[in-house]
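Hi R.,

Here's the chain you asked about this morning:
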Amino acid sequence: MKVIGFTGNYGIGKSALQCYLMADSSILYSGRPFFLPDFAQRFVATPTIIVRMGRLGKCIAPKFAHRYWDAFTAGFTVQALQSDNVSLTALDRAFDGAAIVGEWVSVSDVDNACDTVAEVMLDGNVLSQCRLADMKSSLDDLLAAVSTRCSIKMGDMIFTGDTAVGTVLKPGNRLTASIGGRQVLDVKVRL
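And here is the predicted structure, written out as tokens:
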């Protein structure tokens, strides 16, 4: 399984679209705690919408890309930063637990997945309310671009981009998210 992430794909900031990869051991599902590691000085959680692939594909044309994903959810990516807010290695986004994933919502369970609102909160405060339709580069274009370089397989995940500015995590924080009003994520931060 591949975990592919993007930054710079929503209206926050002026950063260019960038791609990164995460290890499958990075995935942390809802209901399990996120333990703050000790190898960096701070850990920044950034909300995102995540889609799951339901078919095998290679060199997918954008007009057919909607056929390749079957579910979506809200979640967070966590990045390890040093004292000067610098990420030193690609592993600073790929460590165990860095990909916080909510419960999957099937595309067939909603009227229009791209227009369904994902709301992400930290300690009850809304960090982001957005939709897949709000992306600068559409999901169809992202899938087409990724599939030219590697095969898309069932279960692969695409983190579509940062939907809000990241927040430094502290012990006791609670990360929650909902899709279309249905809670899909509840994770507590611990030492």
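One quick note: DSSP finds one helix and 14 strands in the chain.

Cheers,
M.
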